[in-house]
Design brief:
By secondary structure, the protein is of the alpha/beta class. It is about 40% helix and about 15% strand. Helix 11 crosses helix 14.
Length: about 400
Amino acid sequence: MTSAVSSDFAWLNRGTSEIFPDQAESTDPTENLLAFLKDCDRPLRVKLGIDPTGSDLHLGHSIPFRKLRNFQDAGHTAVVIIGDFTAQIGDPTGKSEVRKQLTPEQVKVNAQTYLDQLRPVLDFETPGRLEICYNSEWLRGLDLEAILKLLGTMTVGQMLAKEGFAKRYREENPIYLHEFMYPLMQGYDSVAVQADVELGGMDQKFNLLVGRDLQKHFGQPQQFCLLLPLLLGFDGVNKMSKSLDNYVGLTEDALSMYSKLEKTPDNLLNQYFELLTQQDLNSLPENPRERQKLLALDVVGQYHGEAAAQAAQQAALDLMSRKSVSSEAVPEFSLSGVEFPAKLFFILGASGLCKSSGEGRRQIQGGAVRLEGDRITDVNTEFAALADLDGKVLQVGKKKFVRLVG
């Protein structure tokens, strides 16, 4: 057979934690993904499911989509499944209690936001390279007979082997029956789209295996499963998470994104380069500081363009040296809704630099707040009029900035 894809498969194992089944020595294409890629004479259908349970994505979320783009560039079809039906249940993976169920309207809004944020990552333009499906198309139509047959493919014991369920059972936290349906519905997605390969994070192994089992049950060839690492946040301990404030959002402005990435801890640099860039890992700068700057430039360039990345780098240098910063490089916050005289801690909360006025107070007391490069430590600092702040850069720590405007 003639291969339909690129003969260079180095991308397949880059940043990949596990592939299964993976009989490395086998030439049987049903047991070895590389052999399958070389042997197949058609574009493979590569599945990645997302449940739009929130509105903001961060770099950790981008990891499987970057791998999906690798498959697209190699000539295959990315099948992105928007879990508009499953999101109303919520993936129980890693959760110590039942997840709050979303309304269809919330899911629809979140789904569009997700797709907008993923445009810099995936190929939306090349014909045949991307399919976007909504799993309500097939799940909503299942009748009780079909659901009972689906439930009959797994035992309670198998479900309790899932780490999250087992932990909750041991701790006597409630497990609701509808949560058992989640892995089955995600697995049924693989049947519905006839997936050849499914991508997921390391915490999704159970769900991906269910997809293989259901494909076998329904008489389909079983998909290969490719697991990807979970990106660590800046603390170097926990996975990147908005709730832990150790993340870089895909929609963050160029300067904020650059300022966070150029402070990436040395022990995370190799992982970040491998998972977030296409840089040759054998040709990176030896100096850790130069590595940090290269990483920040590369990633910011992916989402904002090379010119914006260069401008963000210069703006970050100017802020550090207390020079004037170009207005294009710093996001703006309008003071038009602020009533003067106004306390600085209130402005910190209103601008989003701090989560609340209370946090604003703490940041001022801790010496983390600067206005035009000058540190402010008086928690009662007050400004009489908008003109006192118009055009000035307000900064919290080394990574958060806004230019105050009237």
